[in-house]
Design a protein that fits this description.
By secondary structure, this protein is α+β, with helices and mostly antiparallel strands. The chain has one domain. It is built from three helices and eight strands; from the N terminus they run ββββαβββααβ. The strands form three sheets. A four-stranded antiparallel beta sheet has the order 4-3-6-7. Strand 1 and strand 2 form a beta hairpin.
C-alpha cells in the first residue's frame, strides 16, 4: 500500500482529505477497517471523513439522502453505494474488504433518513 503525505490531498480513486494512504484512511480514522469515503451533499465531493471535510472546505459536511446513489465509496476497489445499501453491509460486495461497524456511530453526519416524515 502506497503511503502519501498527510496533507489535504486526493487518493487515486478521488477520495479527498488529510489522507495517509491510497485506500482513504486519514489522520482522524486510520484502522485497517477505515476504508469508506462519504459524499458531501453540498460540494458533492467524496471525503475520507467529515472531520477532514470540515477542515478543508468552507462549509460543514452536508448529509446526503440515505437513498442517494453513489454517496459511499469503498476505498479499496472504488465500488459505490447509497448510504442505505452500505449501512446494511459488513464488507464490500465487490472486493470483500471489511467495513468498520463503528462508522454507524457517525450516521447522522453522513445520511438523512428519507423515510422520516416532516
Amino acid at each position: 500500500m502506497e503511503t502519501v503525505q498527510a496533507t489535504g490531498n486526493r487518493t487515486s480513486k478521488g477520495i479527498l482529505g488529510l489522507i495517509t494512504d491510497d485506500q482513504g484512511r486519514c489522520i482522524h480514522y486510520n484502522s485497517v477497517l477505515d476504508i469508506v469515503a462519504n459524499r458531501c451533499s453540498v460540494c458533492k465531493k467524496l471525503y475520507s471523513c467529515y472531520k477532514c471535510h470540515n477542515e478543508l472546505e468552507d462549509h460543514p459536511f452536508g448529509a446526503v439522502s440515505e437513498t442517494e446513489p453513489d454517496s459511499v465509496m469503498c476505498g479499496v476497489c472504488g465500488s459505490l453505494y447509497s448510504y442505505k445499501a452500505y449501512s446494511s453491509l459488513t464488507s464490500c460486495r465487490t472486493c470483500g474488504s471489511s467495513f468498520n461497524p463503528r462508522c454507524a456511530l457517525h450516521r447522522q453526519c453522513y445520511a438523512k433518513n428519507t423515510a422520516a416524515s416532516s
